[in-house]
């Protein structure tokens, strides 16, 4: 999924250098050793990545699980984050477990037990605002061939983010089956000391539409421009 995620944010490359490392322990080419989402393992991994790239302080753009990892580094070593733009973020608010099980987990398990095109579409549909065959196939491949880590990054707290003063931009999806938009935005206003904007993407699921991504990229580009000028 990492090349696909990079494609969604590719317009940002017109004015910025983008780094998109495979998240450690997630589907991709990195080691499959999985840090516990309850501790600071992901934050220490991000530190290692930044040190390897020679980056002392940089803005972060995070989608879903990647947004949750951004929160981990923001709480662990906030001086390394100059700004954060988070899309459909984990780590802020979640749906009730029964809703996620019924709408996401059950279709996934049915597809794994008996793969087929229709079952693939049913498994991908709760995540995608617009059906995309390439993305659906990637989701299906992950469901069938990867031992998925079902643990989400732990919820960020107001206390751990108290020292995180970097500007923050949030985009939450109205019909996100994992992280419902209104709940995410309400809690974001409570825990971020420097929340510049928080927007609910209307009629969007966990992975927003192409039009929504166009809007998101325009907003993030302006956001990064403000950081460059500060």
Nearest-integer average pLDDT: 90
Strand coverage percent: 5-15%
Helix and strand sequence: HHEHEHHHEHEH
The named CATH superfamily of the largest domain: Alpha/Beta hydrolase fold, catalytic domain
Radius of gyration: 17 Å
Q: Tell me, what is the CATH class of the largest domain? A: Alpha Beta
Shape: globular
The N- and C-terminal alpha carbons lie at a distance of 33 Å
The total number of structural domains is 2
Counting DSSP H or I runs of 4 or more residues, the number of helices is 8
Major pleated sheet? 4 strands, parallel
Sheet with most strands: strand arrangement = 1-2-3-4
If you consult CATH, what is the topology of the largest domain?
Answer: Rossmann fold
Instruction: Identify the CATH architecture of the largest domain.
Output: 3-Layer(aba) Sandwich
The count of DSSP E runs of length 2 or more, i.e. the number of strands, is 4
Structural class: alpha/beta
Uncertain spans: none
- The helical percent reads 40-55%
